[in-house]
Amino acid sequence: MKKLSLVAQIGIGMVLGVLLGLIAIFWGFGPGVIDWIKPFGTVFVNMLKLIAIPLILVSLIDGISNLTDMAKLSRIGGKTVGLYLTTTILAISLALGIANLINPGSYLSEEKREELRVKFAPDALSKQESAASVEESGPLQLLVDIVPNNIFESMTSNSNMLQVIFFAILFGVAMIMTPVKEMTPVKSFFNGVNAVILRMVDIIMKYSPVGVFALLAGLIVDIAGNDPSSAFGLFKALGVYAISVLFGLAFMVFGFYPVVLSSFTKIKYKDFFKGMFPAQLLAFSTSSSAATLPVTMERVQKNLGVSEEVASFVLPMGATINMDGTSIHQAISAVFIAVAFGHNLTLGDQLTIVLTATLSSIGAAAVPGAGLIMLVIVLGAIGVDPAGLALIIALDRPLDMCRTVVNVTGDATVATLIASSEGELSEGIDVSKLTAEEKLEVKVSESDIEKFR
Ligand code: ASP
User: Of 219, 341, 389, 393, whose CA is between 20 and 30 Å from 125?
Assistant: First the structure.
């Protein structure tokens, strides 16, 4: 019998996970799922996180040291930051358009609002406290936070991704500036370690169908709690808001990115989608761009033909600072909560949302729920009571799953644009047409491709 591809296995894992979660709620064995199934999902996410810091550090150093000149590095750096900012601002503008047009806040009845506010008030309070520490630190704190004073300390937490990136860039730049004779052994060391780490990613991915199954089963049970009808009633009341967010997110994936890719590169969106699909599924299941990063990096290089030097520079930075999906969610949520609380948003308020949602999506960590915490800052800036978070907390996880897909797709789009502008992708990659030698060159092995078919 032909072995199922990894994508099919992940898909089956997802469907079975959702089914098990639903059956568990209705037959009352939710706690059993939390005790005996969910831990396998946590193990999977832990394995992905485990590899994140070594992967970023080594692949970034390896990637940068392959750059032959500083001019190229600063050119790619400039393009990366410019494109990330542009796509985020465009995403927020789109979100504001949708929020003003559909106006989901006006669909909420006064009673329901009160009920939700009371129900989730303690939860909203803890989010407010986390955000307060971010707010207190002053406008340039983000800059200060990027420069670590001890790299080993930075490497002890996945939330210090930007600090590790800073160190890796500095290290890589210093390598370029060091004479070739001294640099050669260091370079081959990082080259070899990089290959080993990518192999580790392959091993972890083999476990992904089980991990995804366990994650989704646990998630469904967590959302519903002990009272399925309350969970589903809540979903219904907030349906219009969720649809607005989903519409914005879908527009990015099916409208904006395809148009940008077909306007500025020769890659076909169909091929792009096919190549990125496993990373998108993983983003959906883990709600974390950081956890998905190893797979995003692998797919972009193997399936889209982006070079290691571009991928290892653009993608780790993107996972941390480029969150188009998160910024869409923040803009629509801010308008929704403001309207639900009876605020009339002026043009100035809307511009404030553009600015603060851009900054807070940059500042949001690439982990589940980070966008929700940062939303407090957006709400505070437009003078809306952050307790309004209570209105949307119940829906956050499913929306987080979807916005993370957009975050990851946005990063891959920018990496592809930059690779194309550097002349790396002539026609996109059609592996079947390459000679054996060329296949080796783009580091695509037949067995790897077969796995994902
Ligand atoms: N979960 C998102 C990510 O990792 C961040 C967020 O919006 O909460 O990309």
Answer: 219
Write out the two tokens for 65: 């040291």
Q: C-alpha angle 351/356/358, rounded to 5°?
A: 95
For the chain, the domain total comes to 1
Helical ranges in 207-322 per DSSP H: 208-224, 228-237, 239-251, 257-264, 269-286, 289-304, 308-321
What backbone phi and psi angles, to 5 degrees, belong to 179?
-55, 145
Distance 293 CA to ligand 1 centre (A): 12
Q: How confident is the model at residue 451 (pLDDT cuts 50, 70, 90)?
A: very low
CB atoms within 10 A of CB 312: 28
Statement: residue 216 has pLDDT above 90:
no
User: For position 318, what pLDDT does the model report?
Assistant: 87
Atom of ligand 1 nearest to the CA of 404: 9
**CATH code (residue 211):** 1.10.3860.10
| Ligand 1 pocket, residue 63 CB under 6 Å | no
CA of 316 to the centre of ligand 1 (A): 14
What global pTM score does this model have? 0.74
Shortest-distance atom of ligand 1 to CA 373: 8
Instruction: Tokens 């605020």: give the residue.
Output: 343
Confidence of residue 444 (pLDDT cuts 50, 70, 90): very low
Instruction: Note down the domain range covering 215.
Output: 8-69+81-438
